[in-house]
Amino acid sequence: MAFSQEAIKLIFEHHGRKALADGGEKKGTIIFTGTMGSLRTNPRFASYGGSRSAVRSLAQAVAKEYSPLGIQGVHVIANGGIKDEDSEATRSGKMMSADAVGKTYLWLAEQEPTLWTHELDIRPAQEKF
């Protein structure tokens, strides 16, 4: 929570607080990375699920409060391993590559203020779900 509060202060310091409805621009994007634990929890993982749900709720609160002022809040459910390497596992979709995740995050940050993604579920292409 402290990170998002400080990030929002810095964004407003650099871009002002003019609302989108008043002709203001998109000022930035705050992306919270979560897991499936934010949606459902397995037995014996109640504290983990509770903490992941809290991050999702924080992302939603940021989006609801600050979207009108030009700050996009996004919760990304990263369901699977992320590897920072070019390997058979990342090329075949058994694991997510850090490069692919980074490109997805950049796509989120570059969205125009006419339509924003507020939650996204990313997974390895070969994951069975």
What is the fold's blueprint, element by element?
Layout: H1 2-15, E1 28-34, H2 46-66, E2 71-78, E3 82-83, H3 88-91, E4 96-97, H4 98-109, E5 119-122
Largest sheet: 3 strands, parallel
The coarse silhouette is: globular
What would you call the structural class? alpha/beta
Radius of gyration: 16 Å
What separation lies between the terminal Cα atoms? 31 Å
Task: Tell me roughly what share of residues is in helical segments.
Answer: 25-40%
Unreliable stretches covering 5 or more consecutive residues: none
Order of helices and strands: HEHEEHEHE
Characterise this structure.
This protein has 4 helices and 5 strands; from the N terminus they run H-E-H-E-E-H-E-H-E. The protein has helices spanning about 1-15, 45-65, 90, 100-110, and strands at about 30-35, 70-80, 80-85, 95, 120. It is globular, with a radius of gyration of 16 Å. Helix content is about 40%, strand content about 20%. The strands form 2 sheets. Strands 1-2-5 form a 3-stranded parallel beta sheet, sandwiched between helices. It has a two-stranded parallel ribbon with strand order 3-4. The model has no long low-confidence stretch (mean pLDDT about 95). The protein has about 130 residues and is α/β, with parallel strands linked by helices. The two termini are about 30 Å apart.
